[in-house]
């Protein structure tokens, strides 16, 4: 019996062992779920940390942006318009006429009629030389002319009588022929006397010197009482025409074809005269002519521009800068030249939109009169024209209508 019971017990125990899972399986399952939970918890923690760091960074960025001071700058609006293409050169104001008057009659100066710097018209009295010696010489010549004229008249009357007598066969033919020659001789004498009279009149006219041209008189070079000699090199007075006047300037021979082609189209080209510093335009004129040859030593050709110079701004022999307009570009975008900045070979602008600055690379073209033609920006956009040492991309900007003070270095540009 006991043997049978033991056997059944053994079988029962074996059956129980087969129905119940082993303890290691529960342990592995518990470890798996615990790991999953830990991983989830770790992911949540990491996510919370990242979110908190992002929030802190955003807050720091907002704080930095809020703490960043605004830049005060002047601004201008890009416009659409026209701009001229000019050839720049240096030139000299050259009067059309300059008269250096010398004495053509010898004598004592009796009067000086002009004032220094006076504007005179053609024919105005300038200087008088004592005319009495020349008046006496003219009187003698006139007397000789009158005497010889009467002799000629007497010889002519005798000739008329001889011809009448010869017609009646009252005289010999020789007497008539001799009288005809006497008349011819007297005619020559009268002609010689007339020439002497004319010469005396010319010499007498030299005693009263008048202005040969209209212009401005220079400084007084002689005074009454001075003795002058005929055909001497001493200049008595200098007159320079100032209205109109011209400017002679040089241009590279490479530009000659462009100017000639434009001249054939327009017949004349505008020319501007600027001061030495090229900050003030003095006068506006037109191209008058081009020289007939190129200077081979410099590779340049001379041009002459004509100016009416009604205000007298152009002074003889004055140095000026000239600008010859050879073409005009229409419909281009223009910005102030002061707004264009450079970073090496790259040109850029600070564009202001929504009170913030941004950097815009551009391509520059022709510049004139403080404006530059550019590509890469649209008309109507606002660009900064000062405070470049403080501006950068994203800078808040306050636009000022007044000029911004320069930095300690003395310039608004870095």
Characterise the protein shown here.
This protein is α+β, with helices and mostly antiparallel strands and 414 residues long. It folds into four domains: 64 residues; 172 residues, Efflux pump adaptor protein, beta barrel domain (Elongation Factor Tu (Ef-tu), domain 3); 53 residues, OB fold (Dihydrolipoamide Acetyltransferase, E2P) (Beta Barrel), CATH 2.40.50.100; 76 residues, Helix Hairpins (Orthogonal Bundle). Helix content is 35%, strand content 34%. It is built from five helices and 22 strands. The strands form four sheets. The chain has a six-stranded antiparallel beta barrel with strand order 3-12-15-14-13-16. A four-stranded antiparallel β-sheet has the order 4-11-9-6, with no helix packed on it. A four-stranded antiparallel β-sheet has the order 8-7-5-10, with no helix packed on it. It is rod-shaped and about 190 Å long. The N and C termini lie far apart (115 Å). The N terminus and C terminus are likely disordered.
